Amino acid sequence: MLTIHADSRGRALAVQGEWIATAGPLEEVRAAHPAARVREWPGILTPGLVNLYGNELLEEAYHPDPREAAELGTEPLTGEALAALALDEVRWGASARRGVQRMLAHGTVAAACEPLANRAVQDAVRRTGLGVVGRLGRPQGPASLDPYSCGAPVEFAPEREAGSAARFAVFDVRDVSELAERGAGTCVATVVAGRLVYRRR
Length: 201
Hints:
The protein is an alpha/beta fold.
């Protein structure tokens, strides 16, 4: 089924399957696809973000289950705290799935990684649909789920246009300047391979 995603500026994308069928002003996109379902979002539609810290966030951090919050807290555990957990593959896989979900909640559609070595993490990333792009070496700055708080230049996935893969995000801000100021925690929706994989409740 074809779905139109529109932001508060009247910009819209018509998504069919995994692809963008049409991009442009909402009125034009709606006219081209009168039977499509329309989702209207607050804020701005942008290409999805690329998080530069894929290995650090998925293979070198443990994302606690909410049921573990009283014991482990809610923030990713690294270093000695991570080593003390002695994780097996099941827990690594579950952690990676939660990590990916937290990335998606920040408008991330791809992670930059050196080759992932942990099989459970590889499987979790593949099943969620998060894109993986290569990188050479480790980026500077602290790893963060919010690419705007790392101190490195923020990278976006390729521009959204007709015929391109449907991988984009919506942030509840007025423009990209406010997005840079407030960060990716303003994400209200993330679409990967045409699927709505995150929606802020």
